[in-house]
Design goal:
This protein is mainly alpha-helical. It has 3 domains: about 1-50; about 65-140, Orthogonal Bundle (DNA polymerase, domain 1), CATH 1.10.150; about 165-350, Orthogonal Bundle (hpI Integrase, Chain A). Helix content is about 50%, strand content about 5%. The protein contains 15 helices and 6 strands. It has helices at about 30-50, 55, 65-75, 80-95, 105-120, 125-140, 165-175, 180-190, 195-200, 235-255, 290-295, 305-320, 325-330, 335-340, 345-360; strands spanning about 1-5, 10-20, 20-25, 205-210, 215, 225-230. The strands form 2 sheets. It has a 3-stranded antiparallel β-sheet with strand order 1-2-3, with helices on one face. A 3-stranded antiparallel β-sheet has the order 4-5-6, with no helix packed on it. The longest helix is centred in the C-terminal third of the chain and has 21 residues, at about 235-255. The radius of gyration is 29 Å and the shape is elongated. The N and C termini lie far apart (about 95 Å).
Length: about 350
């Protein structure tokens, strides 16, 4: 053990060598006697094995190191998409950059939540960001870089959105969509699939029009499960017409177009430096503007494509499809999540009341 001071500093530092490792640590003490006692205690813990080198230096670990460990963990295990986490991490970085992990506690998470609320963030968004912070802290604790795991309180979130489409309402919106966008919406309306990640990513190799099936491969969905559904006659007809349109596009381009929903118009190739130019034959990634316009013209502005998931669940429930089968169709991982989407409308309640009235009149 060796004690020393750095130039223009009142704090004593120590250099400890254990098992071939040399650690330089700040004792945090201005008294040489207190610094010696602190250093001896740390050296004794290392020698006896009651602490590791990582634990000894845990009071020095900063947020940036925990952040790097979190991204490494996500990349190695594949439990989360790093690209998806990046926006949440950006907000956490802005607040906790340069902070020592040992000093992050409940008061800090509350202060962070307040600042994000003042910036206009919803409680649900803040909770997702706090979850990322909590995961990073837990990993640091598991790796011996944090001696105490703080409790991070979550905020109360707004009630889940309860929007869904009645059949007449959806038909009205559909009339104002382009033919290919209408087919995409038909799939989401019928099966409750996620528009951007499951419908618009479809390739023809997953479609069998002769048998009448549609398949999502394992790893291509949010929960990584594969999925197979049988198409209704109306969907078979719609996809057959869509296939004919794509084949006409292939003849014009002189190449295979693997996507079910490609751009039929646009630039011939992606220009350097332009990120959002539609390239003919490339996959359609979204059609938010067209969707918003169609909803406005149909007299139901503000409806979301994600409302198709609630709509599909409700329709399956009303048709008496068992939940074990319905979850396989919609892709809900658990029945608890599925139930959250099983919305009851005023029409359902009126129908139930009418049935009770009929029963009472017998």
């Amino acid at each position: 053990m060796y004690l020393y001071k750095r130039p223009e500093s009142a704090i004593w530092w120590t250099r400890i060598s254990v098992g071939g490792k040399r650690l330089r640590l700040s004792t945090g003490c201005t008294s040489e006697q207190e610094a010696a006692r602190w250093a001896k205690a740390k050296e004794g813990a290392l020698v006896t094995g009651t602490a590791s080198a990582e634990t000894i230096r845990s009071d020095k670990t900063k947020w940036e190191e925990a952040r790097a460990d979190l991204l490494t963990h996500y990349t190695a295990t594949g439990t989360r998409d790093v690209v998806e986490v990046a926006p949440r991490l950006a907000h956490v970085d802005a607040y906790f950059s340069g902070r020592k992990l040992q000093g992050i506690g409940p008061a800090d998470s509350t202060a962070y939540a307040k600042r994000r609320q003042e910036a206009g963030a919803a409680n649900a968004t803040i909770n997702r960001e706090l979850a990322v912070l909590g995961r990073a802290l837990r990993l640091a604790y598991e790796h011996g870089k944090l001696q105490r795991l703080p409790i991070l309180r979550k905020l109360k979130e707004a009630a889940p959105r309860s929007g869904f489409f009645e059949s007449e309402q959806y038909a009205s919106v559909r009339k104002h969509l382009d033919p290919d966008a209408a087919v995409a919406c038909d799939l989401a309306y019928t099966f409750g699939w996620r528009m951007r990640s499951e419908v618009l990513t479809l390739e023809w190799r997953r479609v069998d029009l002769k048998v009448g099936t549609l398949r999502l491969d394992m790893g291509s969905t949010k929960n990584d499960d594969g999925r197979v559904v049988y198409l209704t006659p109306a969907l078979v007809k719609a996809l057959t017409l869509q296939r004919a349109s794509v084949r006409d596009l292939e003849k014009r381009l002189g190449r295979i177009v693997p996507y079910v929903f490609p751009h039929f118009t646009g630039a011939k190739r992606q220009s350097v430096g332009l990120r959002h130019v539609a390239v003919i034959g490339d996959r359609v990634k979204d059609f938010r503007r067209q969707w918003a316009r169609a909803c406005k013209l149909a007299g139901c502005p503000g409806m979301l494509r994600h409302d198709f998931r609630r709509t599909a669940v409700r329709n399956l429930e009303r048709k008496g499809v068992s939940r074990s089968v319905a979850t396989k169709i919609t892709g809900h991982k658990t029945e608890a999540v599925y139930r959250r989407y099983a919305i009851v409308s005023d029409g359902d309640l009126r129908e139930a009341s009418a049935k009770l009235a009929q029963e009472a009149s017998r």
